Every structure is written in structure tokens, then in C-alpha cells.
Amino acid sequence: MLTWNASDYGGIKLLIPRSQDVFRPSIALLNTMGERDLFKEDEAPVRVHPDGGVTWLPGSIFHTACKLDLTNYPFDEQTCKLDMIAMDFEPDMLQFVAIMETAGQLFYLENGEWEIKSSKMSAEIIDVGDSPMSSIVVSFTLRRKPEFLVISVLLPIVFLSLLNLLVFLIPVDSGEKISFGITVLLAMSVFLSITSQMLPKSSETMPKMIRYIFCLLIISLLTVVDSIIIVKLHHMEEKDEHASPNTEPTAFSTWIPKILASNGSQASPSPYDLGPRHGDGESSSRSTSPVVEERVTRKVKANRYKMIGKYIDLVSLLLFGLVWVAVTVEFLISSGAKI
């Protein structure tokens, strides 16, 4: 009905009638979150050629639903589809044909968050309820651009977790060992909450990035607990001194040598003598008093506590460092991190 011989009409090879005067199929979008009928009020021009070919270029903003898999977030790829059907016709009356294998990108403007990795077009017969309908499916494979998220969220968390390992290099006597670890722990908790708010709520899977941050949070928590134990061991000396009896010289312990000397007996050495006494060319070896032995024992025990704390510091630095490296490498490999 729309064909003519151009030579019979003065060489006219193109007609542009009103779009309402030309047959246009009613096209609906199945996976829509907005208006289902896509082009019911579209006034895009219709171009009619002498051979009966009609070109119609409608346009619209499609609000579609897309199921997301955020397992590898922010290094994820998503596949979204546009399922368009002809609502008023059976497949034997109207059937779509995909004249291209991929979606055209002539007027595509690059997005700041996503890039189109590939696209595909196909014509299918699908069942809508009990009725088969002709449909055309346009699918896009989108790859997220992770640079912004990596720089603004992931790298600060990694640096904080690495900084948290340095808590084992802080001397206990500085008094900042525990407070430093708790500060880093709180900072990581804030970043974890920020990352959770950035994620879409429609994901059915747990992102590996959240698991990775949670593992770093656990490591940070364990380093704080470890630091508390180390500080406790370091101050075991004060606990022993408070628990030990008073060993300061008393009047009774001072009078005993004087009484023995007045009786002509050889005065026994004061319990506070730290070594042998030399006099009149004679040297006598004296055994160490019990009080001195107790002091030395406490001193050795205190030094032993401090040495244990230092060894725990060293071992913890190596152990938590290896765990941090293992967790980070596993996350990068499993999520396919490519920047």
C-alpha cells in the first residue's frame, strides 16, 4: 500500500507523513519499572520509501529492572536486558527481526560509572502468560569502573589495616599502644558503614569486598586484644610489688645486730647487705639474705614478663602480617581485580 514508482511522481523518493497516519506496532517493555507502553505518544517522524520500507526512530527513557550480582563488587560485571514485545499481535501476524547482532552506539555517551563491554540483539518468541508473543531482546554487558571506589574507599581501608599492624612496634611505656589500636579500629568501622550504604539493596549475594573489610575489622579487633595482653604482662611487676609483703627496714631488724654485738657475739650481717664485708684484712663470704633474694626474684620475674611481652609483640607482628597479606591476596584474586 505504501509503494510507488518514483518516476511517475516527479522523482519523489521519500515521504514523511504524520506518524499517526502510518501503522506502528504497540510495543511494551516487560521488565519495566515505569510506563509499559513505550511509544504510545511518540511523535518521531516516519520516513516512507518507494519500495514500501518505513523507517521509524522513536526514543524514550526506559526504566527497567535489572538483577544485580555484586559478588565481585567493585570489580563486577552486570548483564541487563530490554525485553520488548508486540502486545496486539500474535507471532504469525507480526514478528520482529533483528537486523543487527549488536546494539548501535552511534549516539552513545560514555557513562562515568559504567562502560559497555558488549551488547547483543535477538528476536525471540516468548510466552506471556498463556499467549506466545514476538519479542526483541537487547542485552548489555556492563563493567563497573572501579577506580573511584578503589581510591576513595578500598585503599584507605587497606592502609588503615596495614597501619594497625604497626601497633606492635609502639613501646608499652609510651602509653599509646592500646589507644592507637582502638583509634584504627573505630576508623575501619566507619569505613565499613560507609561502604554498606553505597551498595544497592537489591543484591542477593554478599560482596566479597564486605567480607574482606569484615576480616580486616576482625584482625584489627584481635590486635587490640593482643595489645591489652602485652600491656598487662608489662605491668605485672607493679602487681607483684603490691602483692608482696613490706620489706623495708624496721626498728626490730635494726636492733638485733646491735644486741648481738653488745653480747660479744659476732653480729650477723644485716639483711640489707648486698655483698661480703671486708675489714681488718679479713674477708668473709656471706650468703645473700632472704630479703635480697626476694627482691632479685621479683626483679627477674618482672624482666621475664617484659621479655614475654616483647616476644609476643614480635610474633604478633609476623603472624598478623602474614594473615593480612593472605586475606588481601585472596580478595584480589577471587574478585578478579583489574584496574
Automatic annotation (TrEMBL):
InterPro entries cross-referenced by the UniProt entry: Neur_chan_lig-bd, Neur_chan_lig-bd_sf, Neur_channel, Neuro-gated_channel_TM_sf, Neuro_actylchol_rec, Neurotrans-gated_channel_TM, Neurotransmitter_ion_chnl_CS
Membrane-protein topology: Multi-pass membrane protein
Gene3D superfamilies per record: Neurotransmitter-gated ion-channel ligand-binding domain, Neurotransmitter-gated ion-channel transmembrane domain
Subcellular location: Membrane
Protein origin, superkingdom: Eukaryota
Segments for region (Disordered): 266-294
Single GO cellular component term: membrane
Primary location recorded for the protein, binned into one broad class: membrane
A GO MF term: extracellular ligand-gated monoatomic ion channel activity
PROSITE patterns for the chain: NEUROTR_ION_CHANNEL
Keywords associated with the record: Membrane, Receptor, Transmembrane, Transmembrane helix
Domain Neurotransmitter-gated ion-channel transmembrane: 154-283
Cited PANTHER family: NEUROTRANSMITTER GATED ION CHANNEL
Protein name: Neuronal acetylcholine receptor subunit alpha-3
Organism in which the protein naturally occurs: Elysia marginata
Organism placement in taxonomy: Eukaryota, Metazoa, Spiralia, Lophotrochozoa, Mollusca
